[in-house]
Amino acid sequence: MTRLFSVLLLSLLSLLPRASLAESEIYGGFGVGYSTFQVDSIKFEGAAVATRQFIGLNYGDYVGVETGYVDFGTVNDQILPEQGTGSINNGIKTWGYELAVIGRYPINRELDAFGRVGVLRWDSESTLETFPLPTKQDGDDMIWGIGLDFRGAGRFSARVQADFVDIGFASSWWTLTASAYYAIPFGR
Question: In the chain, pLDDT over 70 holds for what percent of residues?
Answer without folding.
Answer: 74
